[in-house]
Amino acid sequence: MYQTTRQISKAAFLVFFIFIFIGGCDVDFGGGTDDNDNDNGDSGVEIGEIVQGTIVDTIPTRATGVDNIEITITDEDTSDQTSETTGSSGFFSISGNFSGSPDIEFFDNEDVGNSIGIVILNVFPGAEVDLGDISLENGVVNFLEDTEVSFEADIIENNCNGNSGTIEVEIDLPDTDNEFEILVQINSSTDIEIDGLDADCDDFIIGQELEIDGTLLIGNSVDATDIEVD
Question: Are 71 and 105 in contact, with CB atoms under 8 Å apart?
Fold first, then answer.
């Protein structure tokens, strides 16, 4: 009897094991990661970018002011488009996958299909880009403020002395073996924190992951205002 019971127990366990691993319900045993997490390699960058801004004026003046203007961002590689339409405030915020040098085009929805301005942006992978106030003047897009950018990246080179100089950082591109490199300029007005404490930029260690806020410069470079290492 005891031997028979043991054989039945072993058979039941084997059936349960086959059910779990061949076609049964999903069981979380803890430990692993979710494949759907928007995590981009070692730099911890979330896949996807955000571009926002506020249209404050149009010339010629539209009857509805800055309301009902469509903004479309076109990815330079795939030609995929992401759009949003302004409300009465002129503000817009567009989320999507369009890192690199996408076009951003503005359309007057009161005159369907009428483009009232287009410009090429510089968008780092995983970055949030704030274009600030924008005017559209006779087909020309004018950025009235500095373009602010926030992103995460890993430091690969440190050329700082005290709290001034430059560092080079990189962002691992998803599904490739490539990296996107950025030059970060640092000066005495840059706020730097490492583990919650004030620090100098020559305290950075190669391989650290940085959270960087700053002003976008020409090319892949940034004038940093805040840098943080958790």
Answer: yes
